[in-house]
Amino acid sequence: xxxxxxxxxxxxxxxxxxxxxxxxxxxxxxxxxxxxxxxxxxxxxxxxxxxxxxxxxxxxxxxxxxxxxxxxxxxxxxxxxxxxxxxxxxxxxxxxxxxxxxxxxxxxxxxxxxxxxxxxxxxxxxxxxxxxxxxxxxxxxxxxxxxxxxxxxxxxxxxxxxxxxxxxxxxxxxxxxxxxxxxxxxxxxxxxxxxxxxxxxxxxxxxxxxxxxxxxxxxxxxxxxxxxxxxxxxxxxxxxxxxxxxxxxxxxxxxxxxxxxxxxxxxxxxxxxxxxxxxxxxxxxxxxxxxxxxxxxxxxxxxxxxxxxxxxxxxxx
Length: 317
Prior knowledge:
Elements: H1 4-7, E1 12-14, H2 21-51, H3 58-86, E2 91-92, H4 94-127, H5 132-135, H6 138-163, E3 173-174, H7 181-185, H8 193-227, H9 231-259, H10 268-292, H11 295-316
Parallel strand pairs: 1-3
Antiparallel strand pairs: 1-2
Helix pairs in contact: 2-3, 2-10, 3-4, 3-10, 4-6, 4-8, 4-9, 6-8, 8-9, 9-10
């Protein structure tokens, strides 16, 4: 492995999306606006759920967790990107790089487990509605949420630890937008097959297992919906799951394709675009999807806006 000065580098250089200065300024403005929309949109969703007692249900409890995860995930990556868009020197210390890898990888894992938990919630709501409040009680919801956070964090801690024990020698250029695990592993000057196996195993545990649970839940849900005789009943059952199903399709698709076979992974550019999708687009889309496709959330927004409008009218008079 060499001596210590061969094993450790003092800083990494993130190559980012583009080396063109004008493009970097454009991307800075674009990503800053999208980050602000992400923070504001998810904050408003959480606030709406807190203020409206009709949304104090398991589904919206998990949605609150999902919003917190989205904002945290975006925050673990985007501020560093924004700084590097304007900075001439795009270095990042190994400790900060490890922290970024830990938080982004951990929050990604938490989100996948949360989506599986939300699929189970929708399964109970559609397939066993009379016992929904009994099955999805507060204690179970809390335990499921804690399991999501703990499992993602533990996996991330293990992956970050074994990744940063690799000797990097003189390799310091990370061809990515952040300290992403595959990009960092590629810097190692030793055989990384064991790390790739660890990535595949964690992908199976935290990606494929939740995905299979989601798939099984929706097979049961669709089967139940098809047995409903009335068109109105089928539409109501479908709308119960539409928002979550949309997020699931978007969230799982590209990640399965990218991470399940890291040794034969797609191009570096595609990896960057996938990271941009999850760090920037998904946190923006989630509040929009749950707001625009969910009648309860739209009704809560209308009620809140009506109350604010009435309050404004009173203050004006």
